[in-house]
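Q: Predict the assembly, please.
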Amino acid sequence: GAVVSQHPSWVICKSGTSVKIECRSLDFQATTMFWYRQFPKQSLMLMATSNEGSKATYEQGVEKDKFLINHASLTLSTLTVTSAHPEDSSFYICSARVNTGENTEAFFGQGTRLTVV
Amino acid sequence: AQKITQTQPGMFVQEKEAVTLDCTYDTSDPSYGLFWYKQPSSGEMIFLIYQGSYDQQNATEGRYSLNFQKARKSANLVISASQLGDSAMYFCAMREWGSGTYKYIFGTGTRLKVLA
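A: Predicted assembly structure:
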């Protein structure tokens, strides 16, 4: 299967600082990447859909100025959590869609566990 | 309204036995796909099985099979011959193609514990 690499796998940062998370498709081109957030013992909640070369589409309730998404190339999307606060602590996971048709599953990165102290 | 419903927050199964994880969905889009993912404690999402809305036969992948009942809008996952390594969270997800966004909607998950 296709490989999606997410970095870092975990990060601890101070309140007020910004954190960047990278999502790379290693062996395929991904025109669309998705960013999810998962609180402990809860489901994955879609934050935004990232399309290469265009602005991300954010889900209702997600602050686009706080969660900056950049999809500058077909293999890389980044999520920057700006001015992070303890309530932003969560598990962030990206997925990339293989652009070869509709009947294909999305492949997920390993996830990033963010802790804001 | 919930688009994907998983009513079992937790399940136990004895090793080597079969277990069914329930999933019901709600959509008005005639074209959609249903997926099951496994999430171990490490956090990564592992794709297990896929069922398309127009597929005539139930999907199977090794020990995993999907009991697709379109009229009832259910897509239950059956794991046969459970193994200790099957202990994890399991998520049912749906993708609607009519919207053109290809985004996934996930259920709340079922935590499966396989007992030795």
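Chain B has no helices and twelve strands. The mean pLDDT of chain B is 93.
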